[in-house]
Write a structure and sequence with these properties.
alpha/beta, Rossmann fold, Arc Repressor Mutant, subunit A, 2 domains, 5-stranded parallel sheet, 4-stranded antiparallel sheet, 8 helices, 12 strands
Length: 232
């Protein structure tokens, strides 16, 4: 049985999610504040943490930072704000994904399943991919630009790998959602936009650009081919 840690000070949300998660066969532990959340994380070593950002004692950002310092437990953030500021900060701290309140509990359960499935997905036997100075190694789950290692979160790596498999090909936001987050992912395409923005920053100026194709999606731009010299 996989264990989900719920860290939220809104009791009705915790009990609602507990009901739906237990119906799906998950074990659930919960904490009403960040301090207890960290204690339960250390005690139970959960398979995933559902983390509210606005918490008493220790806020969700600090909890996320500490959990990521300890290891790679997947984190699904809950935020009441509808803009991207909290989401971007949380993702930068190492969260895997986020949902905004209010939410459909079935959608949250589906998101949890998708995150767990992706975190367990095997990539053995996949060959490294090279696009210009970028090298993506799915087996080692490592990416580098030249001699510089690119530090990517799990979902960012999966997104970059999806783009690198078909350099120059435009992938729609829906296609990326299905490929990276899974067919049962209930979220919005804005999730793709937030992750692309983070990957762009981490690739930097020396990596291949990720081009936005307005109204469609994204593509990883390969370097121009050098002209073939014709014999004189």
């Amino acid at each position: 049985m996989k264990t989900i840690l719920l860290v939220d000070d809104e009791r009705n949300i915790v009990e609602l999610l507990r009901l739906y998660l237990e119906k799906e066969g998950y074990g659930v532990v919960s904490a009403p504040d960040g301090e207890q959340g960290l204690a339960l994380h250390a005690r139970h070593d959960p398979d995933l943490v559902v983390l509210d950002l606005m918490l008493p004692k220790v806020d969700g950002f600090e909890v996320c930072r500490e959990i990521r310092r300890r290891g790679q437990t997947p984190i699904l953030m809950l935020t009441a704000r509808t803009d991207d500021v909290d989401a971007i900060v949380g993702l930068e701290l190492g969260a895997d994904d986020y949902v905004t309140k209010p939410f459909n509990p079935r959608a949250v359960v589906a998101r949890i399943k998708a995150i767990l499935r992706r975190s367990e997905a095997s990539v053995r036997g996949a060959r490294p991919m090279e696009v210009g100075a970028l090298r993506v190694d799915p087996r080692r789950r490592e990416a580098s630009v030249g001699d510089r290692r690119v530090d990517l979160r799990p979902r960012e790596f999966d997104l970059l790998a999806a783009l690198a498999r078909d350099p120059g090909v435009v992938l729609t936001r829906d296609a990326l959602l299905e490929d990276v987050w899974g067919t049962d992912f209930p979220g919005e395409t804005r999730t793709v936009d937030v992750h692309v923005a983070e990957v762009r920053k981490k690739l930097g100026q020396d990596g291949p650009p990720i081009e936005t194709v307005r109204g469609i999606g994204y593509r990883l731009v390969p370097p121009p081919r050098e002209p073939v010299a014709r014999p004189s």
